[in-house]
């Protein structure tokens, strides 16, 4: 489709803005405007609305996409953080509940043969010699596991005649053989203590501080 050399083009004067009709081959050359008389290049009018509108649309589309993407990223980050927080909270809820179990069991009525962590603990008696010597909280701890239990430590809560906790007593043994038994005797230094209940029994993995 060859354009005829003589086909006129519609240009615009760069000074007065009015239309100038000129032959196509003269495009880009300078001429005197027939309307205002000033020298103007013969150029096609710059289509103003058409290119700027899509450009603006493109810019705003990009902005919208950026906002959407950053919003999506932010919400993904927030979701990820929330999930991690939830997991951490779940772990935090589980951990104290597990470690609190033996202590809670101890404060409830201790039935005969309380099983704690592979140990079976008998009911605890406070023995007071009629001669007035030292009292002991006594009972037995059985190892229910197939492995030796080392540095076993038992802690007992002491109660007075009205059931108030008045202190603690403890005893330890270096070893309980597999399926073995340990007769513990925890010295009771609180004079009003008449009863004792299991607070905890466990192997001491790290030696306790003073
Ligand atoms: Zn002009």
Report on this model:
It is built from one helix and twelve strands, in the order ββββαββββββββ. By secondary structure, it is of the alpha+beta class. The protein has three domains: 8-41; 47-108; 114-203, Sandwich (Immunoglobulin-like), CATH 2.60.40. The strands form four sheets. Strands 5, 6, 7, 8 and 11 form a five-stranded antiparallel β-sheet that branches. Strands 10-9-12 form a three-stranded antiparallel β-sheet. A two-stranded antiparallel ribbon has the order 1-2. A hairpin with a 6-residue loop joins strand 1 and strand 2 (19-23). It starts with 7 loop residues before the first strand and ends in a 7-residue tail after the last strand. 18% of the residues are buried. The structure holds zinc ion.
């Amino acid at each position: 489709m060859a354009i005829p050399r003589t086909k006129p083009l519609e240009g615009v004067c760069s000074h007065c803005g009015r239309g100038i009709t000129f032959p196509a081959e003269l495009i880009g050359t300078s001429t005197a405007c027939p309307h205002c008389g000033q020298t103007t290049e013969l150029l096609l009018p710059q289509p103003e609305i058409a290119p700027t509108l899509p450009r603006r649309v493109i810019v705003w589309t990009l902005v919208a996409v950026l906002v959407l993407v950053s919003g999506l990223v932010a919400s993904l980050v927030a979701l990820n953080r929330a999930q991690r927080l939830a997991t951490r909270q779940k772990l935090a809820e589980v951990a104290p509940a597990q470690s609190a179990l033996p202590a809670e069991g101890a404060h409830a009525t201790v039935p005969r043969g309380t099983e704690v962590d592979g140990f079976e603990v008998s009911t605890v008696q406070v023995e007071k010699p009629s001669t007035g010597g030292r009292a002991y909280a006594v009972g037995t701890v059985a190892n229910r596991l197939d492995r030796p239990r080392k540095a076993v430590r038992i802690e007992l809560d002491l109660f007075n005649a009205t059931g108030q906790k008045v202190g603690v007593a403890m005893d330890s043994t270096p070893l309980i053989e597999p399926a073995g038994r340990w007769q513990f005797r925890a010295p009771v230094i609180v004079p009003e203590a008449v009863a004792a209940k299991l607070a905890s029994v466990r192997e001491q993995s790290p030696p306790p501080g003073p």
